[in-house]
Amino acid sequence: xxxxxxxxxxxxxxxxxxxxxxxxxxxxxxxxxxxxxxxxxxxxxxxxxxxxxxxxxxxxxxxxxxxxxxxxxxxxxxxxxxxxxxxxxxxxxxxxxxxxxxxxxxxxxxxxxxxxxxxxxxxxxxxxxxxxxxxxxxxxxxxxxxxxxxxxxxxxxxxxxxxxxxxx
Length: 168
Hints:
Elements: H1 10-17, H2 37-57, H3 68-78, E1 84-89, E2 96-100, E3 105-111, E4 114-119, E5 125-129, E6 132-136, E7 144-148, H4 152-160
Antiparallel strand pairs: 1-2, 2-3, 3-4, 5-6, 6-7
């Protein structure tokens, strides 16, 4: 007993004082009434409608490059005026390497629902294992990208011989 207060909640004190054994139910716990079935069904319908709307809008969908034309459009969005003459498309559409007439090489990688692109420079290094090409962009924020390419040997040589090309 601390300063005249009983350690038990009032509901328990009353029951004990009356000579009966009271169950301990804290007075601050609210017992929710059962949910109305109509409200439950309405909530489920609303959730399913939001899921359907998100799919229809294409939210949460991973971007893919379906062909060379899609890669060319993504390259132009990343670097305005970049006109590729050669394209190496990742097998599952998760990135691409594109080369222009000036020998610049653009690396595309997924970034949310879009593609981020960097013109590779002399700090870039590429390592190949069969058709898998791992590219260290030399830029910490852009990071390392691994692409599965049909012509991985060509791209490895092209990237490793870059000299002084700038980032964009």
